[in-house]
Amino acid sequence: MSEHKPLVYVITDGSGRGGTSRTSSTTALLRHLGIRQGETFGAMSDAEIYAAMLMQNLSPFLKLVDELAASFLKHQIDCVAGEASEGFNPTHDVCRALINAAVFLAQRMTGTEIANFEFLLTEWEQQLPEPQHDERCLHWTLDDQLLSEKIAAAEQYVELQDEVRRAIGQHGEKYFRSECLRRVVNPAPRYDASKKPFYETWGEQQVSRGAYQSVIRLKEHVLPLVDAIFRHAEQANLNPLAAVDLG
Fold it and tell me: What is the pLDDT of residues 157-176, one digit of tens each?
């Protein structure tokens, strides 16, 4: 972000169960780095996106695909990077589907390729093996100054302080010196439906404690949404995109 000053889109407000939006902290970080916000910024609360998943309400997701694709065209975006699907948080996995669909739809509009990359957010928290790197990856190794700035920025993000401290406590600051963007080869994501994702196990624990009422399931909730989102990108009438209100 420091090097390339990307236009930044944010799907949810990061409010979680507490209901307090994190967009002000994100805005402060972007302002500090001299980075612009995209038209889509904190479009849904976490509660709203979870409810839409449980109710299989497609409308807000398809609207986001159209808005993102129209914005990519408006700003002549040629490269997009966003979170990977890791089975840790259903919102992250659905956001990856939204990114892929918006990129695919924008490419349909112009016939021009948009480079599409993903980055991992939770491999440290899930204590997963070191990811495999290959020719699809772009790597940055931060010097001491940039690493120091990165850690300082993370520590100043108030709502994530506990996560930041836990991550550094588990792996040390040097773990976050290397950054990797992996090119997305297949825009229609594939999931191993035979394995229970982390978020299902977590959701079951929260329901048993009385903290949640329902569990978001991969097969029941996430996969049907992901399939519908990508079908929309494949089949959408291209003309209405020009009428999307981007402010």
Answer: 988 888 899 889 988 999 89
> Angle, to 10 degrees, between the axis of helix 23-33 and the axis of helix 144-156?
150
The CA–CA distances, whole Å, from 85 to 18, 99, 181, 220 equal 24, 11, 13, 17
* 147 in Cβ contact with 210 (< 8 Å): no
Looking up tokens 């949404």, which residue turns up? 225
Same structural domain, 163 and 206? no
Collapsing DSSP to helix, strand or coil, 95 comes out as helix
| pTM of the predicted model over 0.85 | yes
170 and 192 share one domain: no
How far apart CA 72 and CA 102 sit, in angstroms, is 8
φ, ψ of residue 245 to 5 degrees: the values are -80, 110
Number of domains in the chain: 2
Q: Say yes or no: 78 and 126 in one domain.
A: yes
